[in-house]
Every structure is written in C-alpha cells, then in structure tokens.
Fold:
Amino acid sequence: MFEAGESTGRHVGSGAPAGRPAVDGLSSDEVLSRTRAGRINSIPGATSRSVWDIVRANVLTLFNAIVAGCFVLLLVLDQWRDALFGFSALGNSLIGIIQEYRAKQSLDRLAILHASQVRVVRDGSPKLIPAEALVPDDIVLLSAGEQVAADVRLLDGGYVEADESFLTGESAPVPKLPGAALLSGSLIMAGSGRAAVVRVGPETFAYKLTAEARRFALVTSEIRSGLDRVLRVITWLLLPTAVLVTHAQVQNAGGWAAAFSSGQWIPAAVGLVASIMSMIPLGLVLLTSMAFAVGGVRLAGHMVLVQEIAAVEVLARVDVLCLDKTGTLSSGATAFDAVHDAGVPAAEGWRQALEWFGAKEEASTTAKSIGDAFPAAEVLPEASSVPFTSALKWSSVTFPPGSPAAGSWVLGAPDFVLADSSAGAHARRSAAALASTGLRTLVLAHMPGALPGSATSGALPAELVPVVLLTFREDIRKEAPGTLAYFRQQGVGLKIISGDDPRTVAVLARAVGLGTGKAYDARNLPTDPLLLEEAVENHHVFGSVSPSQKRDMVQALKRRGHTVAMTGDGVNDVLALKEADLGIAMDTASPATKAVARLILLDGRFDRLPAVVAEGRRAISNIERVSMVFLSKTVYITVISLTFALLLWPFPFLPRQMSVLDGLTIGLPAFFLALQPGAQRYEPGFLKRSLAFSVPAGLCGALCVLAVSMYAHFAAPGSAEATQSAAVITLALVASWILVTASRPLNWTKTLILAGMYGGLALLFTVPPAKEFFRLDWPPADLLAASVTVAVAGSLVIEAIRYFQRRLAGRPED
Structure:
C-alpha cells in the first residue's frame, strides 16, 4: 500500500508489465484472468446503510430495552391489558425499518445507475468502464474533472494537478510529473495523461476513507444533536423518577410489607411502568428518521440523488444560492459561433493550431466545439504544451521549427492572454464589444519560439500577437428565469459566480432577470476578509472568478451567517462546492464535481431546485412540529410522576390508558403530520424553539391533571376509577389542544386528522367494549364539570404560550 508521502510525486514501482507499450493496455484475456482472481476495484459505493445497520438502529436502543423489560414484567404479572405499549414500540421499529429500507433501495438503485465510470485503454483502444471493473495494470486516461478511482502511477508524457484534500485535507492542487503516484479519491484539477493502475479495491490507500465517506448515515445535524441531548436528559431522569414513583406506589399500598402480603405490589408495579413508559418519547426518533428517509425517496422521485441524507436538513436552511453560469443557468452546451479579425495580419498555421486544440482527448466542451468547426485530418506533433487551468485561463502548444504552425500558440481569455501586450489593444477592445453582446470570446495568439518557463507562474510575454478572436454561444435554460424568480420570492439571495468575462456574465444575468447593471470583475475583489465579505454581500453578479475565489466567496458568505448552497458542473466549481453548506451538481458535471456534491440533479433540470428546497423545508418544519408535541408529553408526564410521587399519591393513569392517549393525541396524528407540506425556511435554534413551547405547555398540562386530582381527592372523593377517568379526560383535552396548536396553519388534511383524533377520544367513553377494556367511565357530574373547566382553561393558557413563543421567535402568526 502507498505511504501518504508518495502522493506528492515520489516514483513508484509496478505498473504495466515489462516490455508492454503502455498505449496498448491489457487484452481482454488478461482482464478476465484478473477479474476471475478477484483483483477488481471493488469498493463499497452504496449511498445507504446495510440492512443490519438499519435493524440495529431501530431495535437495539436503550429505550427499546426499557420497553422490552417493562413489557415482559407485565406479561409475567398477567397484566397483558396494560402491555399495549409493547406492540406500539414494535410497530414503531417495524415502520422505521421498512421506511429506511425503502429509502435504501431507492438510493442504491440511483447510485448504481449513476455510478462513476473511467476511461481505459484495453485491446489497444479507449473504452468506458465502471470504476469497480478496474484491474491491476489497466491503463487509465486521466483528464481535468475526473476522480482517480484506484491507486495509479502517471506514465511518461503526462502532467496533471491533483487535489488530494480527500486524503490530506490540503486543497491546493499538487503537480504530478511522470512516475508520480496518484491515490484513489484524488481529483484531477488540470492537465491530462495516462496512468497505470497499481492497486485496486481493499489494497488502495484510500479504501477505508472511501468506504466510510460513501456510507449512508442518519442525519448528524442540529435536529439530531438537539434530540440526542433531550434523550440523554430523559435517560438520566428515568432512574430517580422510577425510585420516587416506586416509593409512592408502595407507601400508598400501606408499605412494603403490606404491599407484598396483600398483593398490592402488583398495581404498584403497573403504576411504575405507566410513569416510566409515558416519559419515553418512543415515536419521536422514529418520525424524525422517517421524515428524512421519506425526503430522500421523494427527492429521488424528482430525479435528485441524495448522496448524504443530512442534505435534507440543509435544504430547509438555505438562504443564499450561488450559481455557476455554464451548465447551470446555461445548458452547458457550447456552440462555435464565428472567427473574428484580431486587427493584425493572421499568422500562418492558425487553423492547424486550432485543429490541435480541438483534437485533444480530454478536450472541454469549448475545445470540442472548436474541433467540430476545425476537424483535423492529421494533428500536428507538438514539441510541448501547457494544459488549461481555471487559474491560468489559457492553454498553449508549441510546434517545432519546420512545422507548418511553428512557434507557440496560446488560446484563452483575452484579458489574461493579452494583459501586457501592446499589440493586443485593438483585440481587447473587439473582444470586449463581442462579450458585451453575450458571446463567449477567446483569443488565439502566437509568438515565434517557445514560451518562457515563467509563463505559467506570471504574465505571458508581450511578444504574443493576437491572431484571431473566436466567439461561442450558450443557450440559457428556459426554466432559469422562473426558477430564480421563485427563489427571490422565497427570500433566498442569489449570486451568479462565473469564471467567464464579466460583460458576458452581465448579459446573461439580465436575461434571467437578475440585475440590470455591470458584473463585478472578480480580479478586483479585495483580499482583506472583511472587505471581501462586504463586496460579496452587496453584489450579486461576478465574472472572471477563479476557483479559489469561488471558495473564498462562499466562505465569506458563511462568515456572514448565511447558509449557502452552490450549484455547478465544472472542475472549477469543486472547491466552492466542497466549502458550501450544500453542494448541488448538475447531470453534466465532471466526476470530481459529483464526488463532492451532496445532491445531484440527475436530469439536469434547473427547475428541480424549487421542489428540492420545498422538500427540505417540509421535512424540517414537520419535524419541529412533531417534536413540540412529543416533548410536551415528556414534560407533563415527568412533572406528574414526580409531583404525585412526592405527594405519595398513586400514579393517576394505567399503562393502557396512557397508551391509547399517546396513540390518539400524539402517535397516529404525528405520523401523518410528519408528511404534510411545509414551505417555511428553517432557521437555527430548533431545540430552543421547541423547548420554549414544550416546557411551559407540558407544565400547564401537568398542573391541569394535578388540579383535577386534588379536586377529586379533597372536594369530591370517590372511586379510584372515577378519579382516573377524570384525569384521562383532562389530559386528553389538553394534549389534543397542544396538537391542534402545533399543527397550525391548518388545511383540510390536518383538519381531518384532528377530527379523527377527537372522534377516537369520544369513542373511548361511548363504546362499551372500549370503556371496559380501558377502565374508563363518565365521572360524576361535578368532577366531569371540573375536568372540562380545567382543561378549557389549560387550553387557553397553551394558546397564549404559543402566541408569545412565536412572537419571541420572530415568526409570523398562524
């Protein structure tokens, strides 16, 4: 296995067998022999967890262990009627497993269909194969925008610049000369070449990193971390609460000796189970996981591949969308337009030079359009060349003396190629005029002899003379204006960040309805972080942006407190996509770009983005609503348990009564509410907002039950069944109003859900079998009146709590 230090350019052994020309590649028989021996590039590439991981996460939990223990205890005590919560917990686990498994299947199918492919030479000709089909000694063709799929050695004649940040954390591209090692996971940022596969699959240096990085994981986010903190607090409260409740139940039965001699310890144990089980928010984690899993499946239905399920939460928080021009706002297809005079007599050989630029195997879409316009019957052999990079903004080729196109030819952006050329003044003016019409413009310049070695690290020589100007057309996506208008209406800031000429970018921005003035020339961006933040905050259209500047601009927006999404399709977008909170790649994106993106628009439709954002907002807003209901229940049950234990009163509910109340006022309604539409942008502070409502609402519910129980105990003493029924009525009305309050704004679907809840509660007290099973009956008239009065008063208090909570959170009223 390679050592990490070899990624900087150390020569390695191995590669193609001795005596074999590297250009031939392996034969079909050699590939078959290696494949049968299991020497293939088999690396876990699924976006989802294994079935065992899904089952373990939904079944083997601390709370499920407590539920199972309580369930078994009640069965042993022959109290099966009060063990209904066990079936509820089992149902929760099954639903969670089924939903996540369905999400897994959907994401895995998409991942397989859109798995990365590599170009290799086999049987003497180039072929496109899946990355996992690579075998040792394969000859791989590398070019800018690709991700290295195995450990390889760069062969003679190649030069690339590799981003090894997946392995080292350092994002600066590393030059790679012939003989240098390239490790799997590296991104080719510039250059091209052929490389021999040295190690594949589990033998590669990055195997463990790649396997781990591509695993599906439940969301590690503010939502998940907030809920985890709450669950930890509940876990710590369970033991002391259980001790106090046990003591109260036993003392109420006459003490330990009397309880065991009379058999009253059994009802005491039932009361203990009721209090403990009611404190556990069994369905909360399920519904949270389900909302994210369903979000991933729904996005798959929109032809959006979620490479990291945490992206669903980020979708809801995005408030700035950065857009690359080419491939995002434009179709990405570049069509050659025309050749224009550069103002000086054209040097001989310019057509052959253009044929060379258009004939390269790794040619970009722009170069390919040149190749279509200037097809080469025979490509001239070059003496040397410099590959295009987004930092240079040009590429070059030098032909030897005696060649029909002798000398050096440079093709690139006019402002970069002719920056210090006095002979280029006319060409620069002509190029500016062409760019101002929205045409993409390049210049082909020439000089005798070879370029100086300093050209790639500084300005090009002034001897360069412009030969011709080339213009290209890009079609604006027809859906772009409407999509951008949607984001503006939703309060999402828009930034066009393009490497093209600012004048060309400005024309496109006006065409899609974003801005009417000039584009900011990124070459004039300040380097001071604070000044950069101001410039990026106050301007919306940028041109001539380098890849590192794109990254710096995203970082500046994040420092300003924004949640940033970035769309792109080129290798020049990789740094910014990695830095953004949410990277979105188009279907035409390079493999390197797709590798770092969290979402991929598989059909390349830009108008998918509104549905993508809406799906994220739906998931998060519903999780917040559901968590408010579940946490309110945890608060009021905890307070009731502790208060009644301190008063040495028995717990006021049977487990079966709490099970049916949970199911009707929380479980079933929350299941459907978690899937309802929602469009409000998520803002940080999920846990704070949830607790700001849940804690006072839960206290209110507990005080209402305590008030009714005290009235029954002191003012209207009666049977234990009547007191329990009164407590159930009170809690049912208060808990149902908590659900109503959290469900706003209401629609027909939510109204039907709530109506079903109230109908189910009414059936508990009117259907004889239900009344008998749950030991419920109408309490005496005065106790019933007290229950309803207290519940109505409690509901009004909850209404006030919700009002002030939303005011403090700065959110609009329901």
Q: What stands out?
A: The chain has 29 helices and 22 strands. The longest strand covers residues 187-199. Residues 618 and 676 are 7 Å apart (CA to CA). Residues 609-646 form the longest helix (38 residues).
